[in-house]
Amino acid sequence: MRVNVVDYGPSKSGYYVTYKVTGIDSETRKKLEKRAKGELTSKNGDLYIKNYFEKKYFPFGSEEAQNNPDDFVAREEIEMMVYLTSLLED
Q: Which residues of the chain are under the pLDDT cut of 70?
């Protein structure tokens, strides 16, 4: 399983981050679709998860995140990978 941040920013509903989850089989995708929170869509065998945040919890809202976006993207990808892996544990 691989997680990539593909989009983030402000929206009408607050702030959002969209993750692309690749390298998963259909059984894993079905488990994640049942257990993960957020807006989930499947496209070409990949799972997209869009999560919304209040401004104070938005991971890319700080000045430091604006100066070092790659570091914050990498951290967010790791955190989502850990979260999704924990959902798959029975």
A: 90
Backbone angles phi, psi at 41, to 5 degrees: -140, 150
d(CA 54, CA 52): 7
Question: Quick check: helix, strand or coil at residue 10?
Answer: strand
Q: How far is CA 7 from CA 4, 13, 14, 24, in A?
A: 9, 15, 14, 20
Please name which of 46, 41, 48 lies closest in space to residue 80, comparing C-alpha atoms: 48
Q: Which pLDDT belongs to residue 74?
A: 97
Q: Looking at the whole model, is its pTM more than 0.90? A: yes
Backbone region of residue 9 per phi and psi (left: phi > 0; alpha: psi in -120 to 50; beta: other values): left
